[in-house]
Design a protein that fits this description.
353 residues, nine-stranded mixed beta sheet, alpha/beta, D-Maltodextrin-Binding Protein, domain 2, 2 domains
Length: 353
């Protein structure tokens, strides 16, 4: 979910044969063009250019910062998207609203490269694996500077006990921030219990004076630069953070976290489903999936790619955590509309206070 500078809230990058084009309107487009919607910095631009060279199909490419921004922009209808990549709970929402077409993934040549484990993860929001093609996965945890902490970092408690007041960063995302606190309090991150959610909000409200900032990808950069001791980040960001600063470590807190999975899907408005299938199959090809992995450094579900990686990467616990470190993790799924409205209202109150 995950992946661009949050200040640029409506960033639109458009690639077609490596050249910029104007954004597509809902009024129509050429038959040899796909409009693709993804998170920022979540696909190597060279991949788009290569796809066009190989197939003749042009890509108009647009980006969003968060699942909520993506959903709002998609539902506005100003642009007729053909393909989108989004997060587990938002994918489930789009599926349930009838916004996604079924795809026969067995008919695509390269989808066999996706490991069964990840198709099983996807069943949390796509029960029969009819709609969503796994793209990248990972965890959410704490990135911290081991030279600045006062003791073991193994619990979400360090974000709530006041010990690092003003020196840590939370995610600027309603589901991620509530998730952290729900797991800290011993709840499911998919709880629909109103009392548990209100208790979560009260805990976040009490915590807020201690929060240095609510950020997205910049959270990693602030820890790398030494402006914060720790931050809640996605695992891919943690890996890159360590590459920039070897004093940085990453932990999935013992209470558990979100094991997230981002996936591709064909929208209900896509008319050229054959081209859409070609694009998804292209992304699953081992050389292309490897190129994307090396551009992003999030966990890939493509097992042929993982087999090609150097041993030091295959055994990196940030990129590929073992089962023991994720045993208390959950996949984030769609909550009912009442719960969703409550979360959004409480998030607005939290940010306003």
């Amino acid at each position: 979910m995950k992946k661009t500078v949050s200040v640029l809230l409506a960033l639109i990058l458009v690639f077609a044969s490596g050249c910029a084009e104007s954004p597509a309107s809902a009024a129509g487009k050429a038959d040899d063009t796909l409009i693709v919607f993804n998170y920022g910095e979540y696909l190597d631009p060279d991949v788009i250019e290569q796809f066009t060279k190989e197939t003749g199909i042009k890509i108009k490419y647009e980006e969003a910062v968060t699942p909520e921004e993506m959903y709002t922009k998609y539902k506005a209808g100003a642009i007729k998207y053909d393909l989108l990549c989004t997060s587990d709970y938002m994918m489930k929402r789009l599926i349930e609203e009838g916004e996604i077409q079924e795809t026969d993934f067995s008919s695509l040549e390269n989808t066999k490269n996706i490991g069964k484990k990840y198709w099983d993860f996807a069943k949390a929001f796509d029960a029969d694996n009819k709609y969503a093609l796994p793209y990248f996965w990972g965890t959410i945890g704490i990135l911290y500077d081991k030279t600045k902490v006062k003791g073991p970092i193994d619990s979400w408690d360090v974000l709530f006990n006041g010990e690092y007041a003003g020196d840590f960063i939370m995610q600027n995302s309603v589901r991620d921030t509530f998730m952290i606190t729900e797991k800290y309090l011993g709840y499911s991150l998919n709880t629909t219990d109103e009392e548990e959610i209100k208790k979560t909000y009260e805990t976040l409200l009490k915590q807020k004076p201690d929060v240095g900032a609510y950020l997205v990808d910049e959270a990693r950069d602030e820890v790398v630069a030494g402006n914060a001791t720790m931050a809640v980040v996605y695992s891919g960001e943690a890996y890159l953070g360590h590459e920039y600063n070897e004093n940085l470590e990453y932990v999935i807190p013992k209470e558990g976290s979100n094991l997230w999975l981002d996936s591709w899907a064909v929208t209900k408005g896509c008319e050229n489903t054959e081209a859409a299938g070609k694009f998804m199959d292209f992304l699953c090809r081992d050389d292309i999936a490897l190129k994307n992995f090396e551009y992003i450094y999030y966990q890939t579900p493509n097992e042929t790619v993982r087999d090609q990686l150097p041993e030091e990467l295959r055994e990196n616990k940030t990129l590929f955590p073992d089962d023991s470190s994720t045993e208390n993790c959950e996949v984030c799924t769609l909550t009912d509309s009442e719960t969703n409205d409550l979360l959004n209202d409480l998030w607005k109150e939290l940010k306003a206070n």
